[in-house]
Amino acid sequence: MTTTTKPAAPVAAAPARRLGPAALALRQGRLEITQFLRSRESVVFTLGFPIIMILIFASIFNGELGGGVKFTQYFVTGMIASGLMTVSFQNLGIWIPIERDRGVLKRYRGTPMPKWVWFAGKVIMVVAVGVLEIALLLAVSVALFDLRLPSASGWLTFGWVSVLGVTACTLCGIAISSLARTARSGSAVVTPVALVLQFISGVFFVFTELPSWMQQVAALFPLKWMCQGLRSVFLPESFGAREAAGGFELGRVALVLALWCVIGLVLCLTTFRWTTRRDG
């Protein structure tokens, strides 16, 4: 007698678990960080350039500015602000046109993934790399040039100046990426702007020693106010009298940076493109 066995009933596949907003953003952020680290040029330029500049300038200008303040103590504030601008404004302004030209953004727009997730990934990458860059700059400055770290209240000021500055520069970097027609033109559009702002905003030189017209032009942009806010953290309070306005003006620093956050957001919403002009 033969026996027959009934085929096993198919097992229903478990429904895929949908990721929440935070998980989506973190996953996209990890992807952006991985892509950044795989680009040797970006890693060397973004993380290495500010450290090289500190080593060069601090070795050449090893004197004091007065009141027991070394030039290194002044210079590191500008390099931190410049580093934050590099990882946000300059990095995004160069790489977004590359992704747009390669069709990466077009493919993202065609997926079910919410558009805000892509932007969240960029923000997470900027924050992660920015924190790493600040840590490296402070470590080098403390170890080699006896940088004096701020007090607890100084770190609080450091935090909000950095957050407002990075937010403004990130939004402006996303906005300026739309000016580049091709992947190759991104660097040509963004790098000159970044270099000019660094020279006129007190990054490489003492701000009050620059011509007055340069100071007035620099005051229109966020980098000058980032540098000024960070100087209030790393320099003695009495050094504020040497600022152009006779004080660190932290209230105005917050107001200008917040205003640039609004301007950058408006520009992003009105100018950002997912496709190149030739794609329509």
From TrEMBL:
Q: Where's it mainly located?
A: membrane
Q: Which GO terms describe its molecular function?
A: ABC-type transporter activity
Cell location: Cell membrane; Membrane
- What's a single GO BP term from this record? response to antibiotic
Keywords of this protein's UniProt record, alphabetized? Antibiotic resistance, Cell membrane, Membrane, Transmembrane, Transmembrane helix, Transport
- Which Pfam families does this entry report, sorted A to Z? ABC2_membrane
Please report the record's description of how this protein sits within the membrane: Multi-pass membrane protein
Q: InterPro entries annotated for this entry?
A: ABC2_TM (IPR013525), ABC2_TM_bact-type (IPR047817), ABC_2_transport (IPR000412), Nod_factor_ABC_transporter (IPR051784)
Q: Where exactly are the transmembrane stretches of this chain?
A: 43-62, 74-96, 116-145, 157-176, 188-207, 253-272
Answer yes or no on keyword Heme. Answer: no
Q: Where does the record place the ABC transmembrane type-2 domain?
A: 41-275
User: Which family does the similarity line name?
Assistant: Belongs to the ABC-2 integral membrane protein family.
Q: What is this protein called?
A: Transport permease protein
What species is given as this protein's source? Answer: Micromonospora olivasterospora
